Amino acid sequence: MFNIFIGNNTGVTLFEGFSNIMIGGSAAASLLEGNNNIIIGENAGASLFLENNNMMIGVNAGTSLTSGTHNVLIGGSAGASLTNVSNDSIVSINSFDFF
What we know:
Blueprint: E1 3-6, E2 16-18, E3 20-23, E4 33-35, E5 38-40, E6 55-57, E7 72-74, E8 89-91
Parallel strand pairs: 1-3, 2-4, 3-5, 5-6, 6-7, 7-8
């Protein structure tokens, strides 16, 4: 099983995981274990720790999300202030930034 990392500090903490695509500076920078994640954009998913099956596309998309699975966050800062959610879909710019 393979992972793809492109960008400074991208996926630097990943210890165990497969089928992840992480592109952008500090994308998924805190992810320790995870599978089947697609994280594209500077700081996207930067706080994820032990998570699977997430898609985050956009600068700062899901940047504060520490735990959660099966999330789709698309757009600049989409879900940026969410911290612990699963099974959410957000497609917009700056969506749910204040919840």
